[in-house]
Write a structure and sequence with these properties.
heterodimer, A: 416 residues, alpha+beta, Rossmann fold, Dna Ligase, domain 1, D-amino Acid Aminotransferase, Chain A, domain 1, 19 strands, disordered N terminus, B: 174 residues, alpha/beta, GMP Synthetase, Chain A, domain 3, 3-stranded mixed beta sheet, 5 helices
């Protein structure tokens, strides 16, 4: 047998990291643990002479792809660390001949109105909805809301993290919500021609499903219950707890719905994060799609998850992108959860006191405050950030919730 | 794997391994000889080597037959005995090659010290609390120092990022 003196090179991954993201550290840690040869593409990072950092712009996918291709390097996978880089990742993977989502599917998944249209075409269960053009009159908006049915939810189609989402219980409230959301869109410098989405409010438990799409369908990595999700008028996410306590048949139906929703958008590869509510039809629970994103769960929430071999969710995403079999399906042995700290009121953040007391609560495993002191903050639906994240792990989901709640009670947020 | 090695592995899994993994490295027991366990660090050395004394204490408490734990980062030359000079060398490299670049983002990096091949760095100004700080450290500072200074096994970021008041980029929930 001939001996080979060729060293085995680690897989090379192009990780696209937007400047404003929570996700950079966890993806870099995952890549480091996996021993990957990492090249970072970013619109914010500086090339510092160590490992390569390539300049890309999520607003210019074609030009950015040209610059990356001009590097002349072979990549084994392209991964977007967060939402702003999803389209560029798809464009690049297509040009490199790597498995990828169709570009138009990624774009569709980032537009809540287009999601609704495609799901309607594929008979995916979702709330009744109307898409209201930017040029529509107040009367037209009130009519659309009435057709969707009260109470309804008025949504910006391009924002995320519950920003620009308001419940309305009557026509006047719907019109007022639309005016307010238009102001939020203007402040966020979104194009003025964006439509608004008006959809029926679905009462019932809310959950999120994270998974990886492969040729075999959706492999679920985590189902989070969202106890305490508000009924409106704003919809800040607060507590996520896994594994879900919903009945198994309901979970299975929700997974099937999320899988159909992803396929209806044209998605076929990589991570998805779906949000659903469990409504009722004929006295039976019926999962309906709220939203779906072609990425893993946002913020620092993935830190609540651990998988077989102590892998992180980011390791699963990177392994999946490299074509390694998804080893999901065995999340952390103990129930875990995360609490996203909402901004309680507008003003300048002066301090978050009581951190030591909060972290000392039994079961609490972590606390990260992610807005710098001195920054101006706004609550939802105007703001787009949470103050931080509390993590907990315990023997039961109830204990996780209690630990998170106790830790939150010990924090004193000073805003003036 | 020998029984003792398996016991050391189990002790690591029960104690420090999750936090090491979360910081970007992993540990593997490669040998146990005469009561000395050799633990290989892969991934980012700076994520594991600062915990060496804690790791040794926990392994010794869990497996009484173990008298010492030796941490090994593959492919690295042993660090120089003169740790002070390593810090000075690291400061020189950072001042010459990194600080001029990150000053563009109102950032600055200092070296509070170095010990056993680990360079402790503190990010300031625009880098403190920046959402891309980890990219700066793991794709810029750590590989550059390891390339320039053979005695560097890794970089430990000791910055209190939550105390940063002027990060160049701050994160938003997606």
């Amino acid at each position: 047998m001939a001996a080979s003196n060729c060293a085995v090179e680690p897989p090379r991954v192009l990780l696209l990291v937007p400047a404003r993201t929570y996700r950079a550290a966890d993806f870099l840690a995952a890549a480091g643990r996996m021993g990957l040869d990492l090249v970072v593409g970013s619109d914010g990072a500086l090339p510092l002479g160590g490992h390569p950092v390539a300049r890309v712009s999520p607003g210019d996918p074609a030009g950015s792809a040209d610059r990356i291709m001009a590097l002349g390097r072979r990549f084994d996978a392209v991964v977007a660390a967060d939402a702003p880089m999803l389209t560029l990742a798809a464009v690049l993977a297509e040009r490199m001949g790597l498995p990828h989502n169709p570009v138009d599917a990624v774009i569709a998944a980032a537009d809540k109105a287009e999601q609704r249209r495609r799901w309607a075409g594929a008979a995916v269960a979702q709330p009744a909805f109307r898409i209201v053009p930017a040029t529509a009159s107040q009367d037209a908006l009130r009519r659309a809301a009435a057709e969707a049915g009260f109470p309804c939810v008025v949504k910006a189609v391009s924002l995320s993290a519950s920003q620009g989402i308001l419940r309305a219980d009557d026509p006047a409230a719907a019109a007022a919500a639309a005016r307010r959301i238009r102001r939020i869109l203007a402040a966020a410098r979104r194009p003025g021609h964006e439509p608004l989405l008006v959809e029926q409010y679905v009462p019932g438990p809310e959950l999120s499903i994270d998974g990886l799409l492969t040729g075999h369908g959706l492999t679920v990595t985590a189902i989070f219950d969202k106890p305490g999700t508000p009924d409106g008028p704003t919809f800040e996410e607060t507590v996520l707890v896994t594994p879900s306590r919903l009945p198994r048949p309901v979970q299975a139906a929700a997974i099937a719905t999320a899988g159909r929703a992803a396929r209806a958008l044209g998605l076929s590869h990589g991570p998805v994060h779906a949000e659903l509510r469990i409504g009722q039809r004929g006295g039976q629970p019926r999962p309906v799609m709220l939203e779906l994103a072609a990425r893993s769960i946002g913020g620092l929430c993935s830190r609540a998850l651990r998988f077989a071999g102590d892998q992180s969710l980011e390791e699963l995403v990177l392994a999946d992108a490299l074509g390694r079999p998804a080893a999901a399906g065995r999340p952390a042995a103990r129930p875990s959860g995360v609490l996203m700290l909402p901004v309680p009121r507008s003003g300048v953040l002066r301090a978050v006191e009581g951190r030591g007391d909060a972290i000392a609560v039994p079961g609490v495993t972590g606390l990260n405050i992610t807005i710098p002191v001195g920054r101006r903050v706004q609550p939802l639906p105007d703001g787009d950030r949470y103050l931080g994240f509390i993590f907990a792990e315990a023997d039961t989901q109830e204990d996780v919730e209690q630990a998170l709640a106790r830790a939150r009670e010990r924090l004193r947020v000073v805003i003036s | 794997m020998t029984d003792l090695a398996a016991q050391v592995t189990a002790a690591l899994q029960r104690s420090v391994l999750p936090s090491v993994i979360a910081r970007g490295a992993t540990l593997r027991v490669v040998a146990v000889d005469d009561g000395v366990a050799t633990v290989e660090v892969t991934g980012s050395p700076g994520a594991a080597l600062p915990l060496a004394s804690r790791i040794e204490a926990q392994v010794r408490a869990a497996v009484p037959e173990i008298t010492a734990v030796r941490m090994a980062a593959p492919g690295r030359e042993p660090p120089p005995r003169d740790a002070g000079s390593l810090a000075e060398q690291a400061r020189h490299v950072l001042d010459a090659e990194i600080n001029p670049m990150i000053s563009v983002h109102n950032g600055h990096v200092t070296v509070p010290g170095a010990d056993r091949g680990l360079v402790r760095i503190r990010l300031e100004g625009g880098c403190q609390g920046c959402s891309l700080a980890e990219v700066t450290v793991r794709q810029g500072i750590e590989p550059l120092l390891r390339a320039r200074l053979p005695g560097v096994a890794g970089v430990v970021d000791v910055t209190d990022h939550e105390a940063g008041t002027q990060p160049f980029f701050s994160a938003g929930k997606r």
